[in-house]
Each structure stands twice: as structure tokens, then as C-alpha cells.
Design a protein that fits this description.
By secondary structure, the chain is of the alpha+beta class. The chain contains 10 helices and 9 strands. Helix content is 51%, strand content 20%. A hairpin with a 6-residue loop joins strand 8 (215-220) and strand 9 (227-232).
Amino acid sequence: MKNNNSDIFDKLKDIGLTKSEAELYLANLEMGPATAIQLGERLGHTRQMIYNLLPTLLEKGVIKKTEVGGRRLYEAVNPEILVDRAQEITQRIKDIVPMLKTRRGEYSSIPKVTVYENPLAMREWYRRYMSEARKGDELLIWASGKHQDWYDIDREFYDNYLKFSDRKGVRSYVILPDTPESHDYQRRVGKPGTKVKYVPDAWETLAEKWIWADQVCYLTIKDNATNMIVLESKELAEIERFDFAQIWQKK
């Protein structure tokens, strides 16, 4: 056997042959019809090892079995047949792609839950947002409109975050309780490009909810107990966007 077969072995592995199977196929290709004993002698393998490899190669269709004068011989198929085997493998993969997509869909429907225990840890989410958000993205916010809000907790860092959203062209929509506090809050923190809607008879809580991309973020805001819970799920985010739109579109 020649010593410069590593590239050929790699190509044969691409169509499902192990290194030992590829070695046997190449030896058989070079020798022509041969017995298992002759193949073993050529490769320096035991007859038992050859007998272990041959059934798999026969099944994969790269070696065929013949009989001449009562002798059982093995012969490598024409290399062009390997193209057919590659096409067969490609077709098999295509056949299972729908099932694989179903499995992926089942997994992706399971929400990923991340909890940030304090404002410092929450910076990770904001940095991800500033890294991944693109022009035209929508950020939907159910805001508390309270003076003691998320902005006051980490003001310098959040100023950069607000400037990023404005500069990047993210479309921000905010729903606020229709209270004097909320109007004052929006004048103090709001940006010119942010669209705001005030709703009567709203919630009386310091919690907020943000929807961006496939993420739904819940902020509980109260001094040292401030944290953020992020649910990452395309399905849940779609439901939240639908609910947001129902309120937003009301007169």
C-alpha cells in the first residue's frame, strides 16, 4: 500500500467508511479480485479481522462478492459507484431533515429562564441588547412610571443604554399608567423617538415588563431587592406582543 493515502481516507470517511474499511477497499481496488486471506496478507491483518470488515463493506455496496472455480473472491466496485453512495447518503439526510426540524422545534419551545439577582448582574442583559439589537427592532415596555424606578438604580449605565436605542433606530413603545407620576417620569427619562401611550385604571406596582426579540423580561424594582427575570421563548414573546398590541390599539 502507498503511504500517501490520508486525503483519500478522509474522502472515503465522508461517505461513511471507517479508516480500516477504507484501507480494505483501497487494497481490494489495487489487487483486483482476491480472497479474504490474500487481503489480510496485503494489509497485515488477521483473517478474522478481514471477515469482520467484509460484511459491512458488502452492505455499503463498495465491495462485491464473486465465486470463481469454487473460490470465494471479493472485488472492489468501480469507484464511480461511490458517487451513487454519496447521493444515497445525501437523500437519507434529506429524508430525516423534517423530523430533525420537529425535534428542534420541540426544544426551542421550552423557555430558557435567566435570573439576574441585582442591578450589576442585569448589566449583562443590557450589554447583550446593545450588541445584538438592530435598526427596526421593536422594544415593547410596560413601564411602572414611578420615580423610584430602574433608571434611578444605575443611572449612568442606563443613560448609555437609552442613547444606544435612540441612535440605533430601535422602535420603542411604552405603555404607562395615566398618572401625574408617569407623565413626569416620561418627561424626565423618555427619548424623542419613543412612542408612549397612557392607560387609565392601570397597575399599581413597581414591576415592569419588556419584550424584545424572543425575550420577555420582568423587572421587580425595589431598592436592594431589584432583579430581572428573562424568559427566552419565541412562542411566549409572540403572545406578549399580541397582548401589547391589543392595549396599544385601543382608543
